[in-house]
Write the structure tokens for this entry.
Amino acid sequence: MEITAATLLLLLLGLSCLVVHLRGKGQRKRGCLPPGPRPLPLLGNLLQLDTKDMAKSLLMLSERYGPVYTLHLGPQRMVVLCGYQAVKEALVDQAEAFSGRGDLPVLFRLTQGNGIALSNGEKWKVLRRFALQTLRNFGMGKRSLEERIQQEAQCLGQELAHTQSAPFDPTFLISQAVANVICSIVFGDRFDYQDGSFLTLVGLINQNAHLYSSPWGQMYNIFPGPMSCLPGPHNRIFENFEQLRQFVLERVKMHQESFDPNCPRDFIDCFLLKMEQENQDPLSYFHTETLVMTTHNLFFAGTETVSTTLRYGFLLLMKYPEIQARSQRSPAPDRACPCCLRDQPRCQAALPPSGTNVLPLLFSVHNDPAQFKDPATFDPAHFLDPSGGFRKHDAFMAFSAGKRVCLGEGLARMELFLLFTTVLQRFTLTPLVRPEDIDISPLMSGLGNMPRPYEFRAVPR
Ligand code: HEM
């Protein structure tokens, strides 16, 4: 197989799904590895994968080696879990053993193990519990999460109205609306869509999201040592991150100046309060660095995912106009969301040795014919009951499962519901090509499936 730059790029994008350790439990240290294709030195199994369609390659390997197999990506060894049964038996049935997060060097250099998504052990537990509790409290607070999202949905509606049905690419606007929800939670207020510092913030988040998945970001993950000495676009990730860090620090200082412990206004205030309460405890996990990284996690995990899901959802609704029309007729449109699927690295423990990186293929769960009749067909009925309400399906794992299940699932569902319904109640989304010509295959599949860029008209109803 010929490795061109493009091939390498796609291949490395595929890698972005990966990497994590098994939790080191003594009795598992001498576990055995499941079968898998024979690796080449240094390259591992890279040449056995169709880099243009990693998802298909990984599924095909599972047909040959079974639902749990060993794969080498470059020098990295990992165990791949494919299909509902294998993923569920690991993440749900052995939740504790699979609760660790493995090393993603590009992210570790930024986070230094701070924050939630990349930390492990006690620190992860404490910070995750705090973040969940704080988000929950916002749900009940004076200005609830729902109100904040409603406000943003109205602003998004206004921006769409300003387009006066002219064709446009909604990518940046959607990212702004979604990032604003996190801004409102973290900083206490949203930004105007034209605000210079907000444009910079969203630009930095978007650029880093792309750079993480780029061949450079992925090369850094595979060869962190040599790559940190080399010039190249991957260094921009760290520069961007530093800018973002300064941005958050500035906001933290502003919050400190007007801080009232009796009246926390937002996530930063709640964190500052916790810092104050624990400032005599040298082992406390609440300090400025963990505050910055937790904020960073909320932005990164919460902006790209929801905006990509919205963008994909709008595209699907234009491809299937009868479903768009049905959603517009429904007084309470269903809360089932089209999925932006992500494969997450996890620690695995059961059979392989501790410290093994494990890749549960979440998309394979949704493609499992044992769980869904005709899984390749877009069919909202998979997740709706006959009356149109949301039907909980065990094999719905867009937010993963087990102990590391998405921390923002509740927020994401609420955002998707309110943003989709607000837009659909006010506008009919009209494609610039015939629905049958809309290509819904992903442009790229890295941490998630990215839809192809498109333009639409938002025509007032
Ligand atoms: C459609 C939207 C979203 C999808 C599909 C999604 C999906 C996921 C998935 C698959 C994971 C990985 C779980 C694992 O390790 O197995 C995850 C983790 C995470 N998500 Fe989300 N997510 C979404 C929205 C959000 C939002 C809005 C937030 C912000 C509050 C968020 C915050 C996080 C965090 C902090 C983690 C790391 C949790 C941990 O490691 O303990 N996500 N998400």
Remarks:
- The chain has a mean pLDDT of 84.
